[in-house]
Amino acid sequence: MSSQAEKAEKFRALHHGPHPLVLPNAWDVPSARVFEDAGFPAVATSSAGLMVSLGYPDGEEIPRREVAAVVGRIAERLSIPLSADVVSGFGRTPRAVAATVRMMIEAGAVGINLEDLDTPTGSLHRPALQVRKIKAVRELGTAMGIPIVINARTDALRHAPGDERERLREAIRRSTAYRDAGADCVYPMGLTDASSISTFVQALGCPVNVMVRKGLPTVAELEALGVKRVSFGPSASYAALGLLKRAGEEILTRGTYGLLTDGAITFDELNRLAQPRTPPTS
Questions:
Q1: Under a CB-based contact definition with an 8 Å cutoff, are residues 64 and 90 in contact?
Q2: What is the Cα–Cα distance from 195 to 222, expressed in whole angstroms?
Q3: Which end of the chain is more exposed for a tag (fewer CB within 10 A), N or C?
Q4: Cβ-based neighbour number of residue 6 at 10 Å
């Protein structure tokens, strides 16, 4: 088994451990390395964080080759599994989505996040089409010899018609279909309250991903609810840029530098984040 295939198996196993996989989302090499150095067992990319850092809005305006290039640079500098957010797959057909995922896997990723929101229109893809996309990715992984870990995201809680209860039922219906098509984990975007999380987890019976945001229960509480994956989403990007905003305001209004200097890493630490890891000595 190749080292990349082994990373994929390790990443999948992290979704079935006794505790939830807390998965940070990075946007470049140093942010990913900071997370690895902190002790996280895997890292994912943030579509919003990555794309905005390159001057594109979140979505699919960015050329997918640019996403693959960043994924490749991050993968080269990590020793832990990396999952790539491919938004809706940069294509409307299963074949196009599989081509996008191939680029990410060839760049070094071992997992993907694939959503069912049609970014240009803001509407949901038909479940049957999304099922075919997931099956195409699963078939691609078999052909490449890499057991790709598929996190299937649904935006039904935000974009399906009906009231809150009806949207939850639609999210469950879609996620069940995605699970049955071969997804390893399902991700109901926007699910935050404990009651709905419990209902969703019990209905799916497979690993469920929730995203860090205000109002989300603690990791311990999510574990008790049966959640198996807790991702940062773009929250780390928000926090980093929020710090820069506050630091700028501090200098301009007070003439002090505390937010820039207190708790900051050194130049040597920063430079080390871009360097290849030294192989362990035997």
A1: yes
A2: 11
A3: C
A4: 14
User: Which residues on neighbouring strands pair with residue 186, listed in sequence order?
Assistant: 152, 208
3-class state of residue 205 by DSSP:
coil
Kindly state the tokens that stand for 156: 């039904």
- CA–CA gap between residue 191 and residue 152 (Å, rounded): 14
The residue with tokens 């196009």 is 96
- Reading the block at residue 100, the tokens are 């996008």
Look up the pTM and report it. Answer: 0.96
Rounded to an integer, what distance in angstroms lies between the CA atom of residue 31 and that of residue 43? 10
Query: What is the Cα–Cα distance from 170 to 182, expressed in whole angstroms?
Result: 19
> Letter for the amino acid at 175?
S
CATH architecture of structural domain 3-234: Alpha-Beta Barrel (3.20)
How far is residue 226's CA from residue 206's CA, in Å, rounded to a whole number?
9
- The structural domains of the chain, with segments of one domain joined by +, span 3-234
Write the DSSP string, 249-272. HHHHHH---HHHHTTPPPHHHHHH
For residues 184 and 197, the answer to whether their CB atoms sit within 8 Å is: no
CA pair distance 123, 102, nearest whole angstrom: 26
Tokens of 213: 């945001």
According to DSSP, the residues that pair with 176 across neighbouring strands are none
